[in-house]
Amino acid sequence: MDKEDLSQIEEDCNCYTCKNFSKAYLRHLLLSEELTFYTLSTIHNLFFFNRLMEDIRRAIRGGYFKEFSK
Known about the structure:
The chain has 70 residues and is an all-alpha fold. The protein is built from four helices and no strands. Helix 2 (23-31) packs across helix 3.
């Protein structure tokens, strides 16, 4: 993470963390040993895995999981 990078963690992510905080700010929190960093990271990670599981379920129901997994 660059200290001047004002982009979000993941461009197409709509989680609270990505919508409200830049990589630069998260880097600052991490280097300052602020516990808020871990909360914001967890929010993003849970959102990511929840979205991944939704996509997996959709692929299974749609019969294209094999292609999806590649």
